[in-house]
Design goal:
NAD binding, Asp_semialdehyde_DH, seven-stranded mixed beta sheet, Semialdehyde_DH_NAD-bd, single chain, alpha/beta, diaminopimelate biosynthesis, Rossmann fold, 344 residues, threonine biosynthesis, globular
Length: 344
């Protein structure tokens, strides 16, 4: 991140959380220009200091006055905070990039993955004098669509079946800490501490902890369904998902089965994916080497492999792929910062 007089003024809401801290790391790593920086958090963290690019900042308590003179606010403090303070910030002329689920499905609010649908936020720019609201999609949606979209553009996906293997980071820094603690406890023969999740997480996996809805799907699964339709601007695409928590620290893996309207063979698919921005192919069949969460942790690119024809479908109308992406980076902070870069 570089201090520039003519850069935008930035505020980070929820700076002490896992994604908030990652915002700082990504902004710095991408040399994002800024004229000033406000670090905002709850009353609990107010007054603490944060070193950023050799400067000490004092974390301020989030309130309505915080957004005076702020050009871009990156929010990652949970849905209720976003619902309360997002509109206040917009009213003051701030462009809000929100990482919660609060506004994703709101009519007229762009839901954006920069490599997938940048046109959705056309006309929203810093310096236009108008505030605005842009939603960051759910992490599992971003990671899935980074790989599925280039194939969809070529052959049109009619149905997509997704199974996710989701990391602790998706439930925040405290969940990552609990996974570490539980692993130690189980190895030492003690009862595992289950505060964040109501069951043992170490050496185990379980259905995603999002609330179950009346149709039997959980909220995380339905996010994949609804957000895909909105991002692709296609209400007809059929999507079904099963989301699972696995004892991995910070990167999600997803098995994605695609059914196409037009034929697409695996070699063409591999070629398309190799040229897609933000993707890296890890697909070595002879060495049995494919994407792993560990390899993509702390990396920007989403890895895709296991690219193969779906033998359960006739002809070249189906493919299976396996995708891994860092949930905190591309699944959250990086995507939001890329959106902010498009506002300049």
């Amino acid at each position: 991140m570089s201090l520039q007089e003519n850069g935008p003024s930035i505020a980070i809401v929820g700076v002490t959380g896992a994604v908030g801290q990652e915002f700082l790391s990504v902004l710095s790593g991408r040399n994002f220009p800024y004229s000033s920086l406000k670090l905002l958090a709850s009353k609990r963290s107010a007054g603490k200091t944060q070193l950023f690019e050799n400067q000490q900042y004092t974390i301020q308590e989030l309130n309505e006055e915080c957004f005076d003179g702020v050009d871009i606010a990156l929010f990652s403090a949970g849905g209720s905070i976003s619902k309360k303070f997002g509109p206040i910030a917009v009213e003051k002329g701030t462009i809000v990039v929100d990482n919660s689920s609060a506004f994703r499905m709101v009519e007229g609010v762009p839901l954006v993955i920069p490599e997938v649908n940048p046109e959705a936020m056309e006309g929203i720019k810093v310096g236009s004098g108008r505030g605005g609201l842009i939603a960051n999609p759910n992490c599992s949606t971003i990671i899935c669509l980074m790989a599925a979209t280039p194939l969809h553009r070529r052959a049109k996906v009619t149905r997509m079946v997704v199974s996710t293997y989701q990391a602790a980071s998706g439930a925040g820094a405290a969940a990552m800490e609990e996974l570490l603690q539980q692993t130690r406890e189980v190895l030492e023969g003690q009862e595992p501490t289950c505060e964040i999740f109501n069951q043992q997480y170490a050496f185990n996996l379980f259905s995603h902890n999002a609330p179950i809805m009346s149709n039997g799907y959980n909220e995380e699964e339905m996010k994949l369904v609804k957000e895909t339709r909105k991002i692709w601007n296609n209400m007809d695409v059929k999507v079904t998902a099963t989301c699972i928590r696995v004892p991995v620290m910070r990167a999600h893996a997803e098995s994605v089965n695609l059914q196409f309207e037009n034929p697409l063979d695996e070699n063409t698919a591999r070629e398309i994916l190799s040229k897609a921005p933000g993707l890296v192919i890890v697909d070595d069949r002879s060495a049995n080497r494919f994407p792993t969460p560990l390899e993509v942790s702390n990396r920007d690119a989403v890895a895709v492999g296991r690219i193969r024809r779906d033998v359960s479908q006739e002809g070249d109308y189906g493919l299976d792929i396996f995708v891994c992406g860092d949930q905190i980076r591309k699944g959250a902070a990086l995507n939001a910062v890329q959106i902010a870069e498009m506002l300049l």
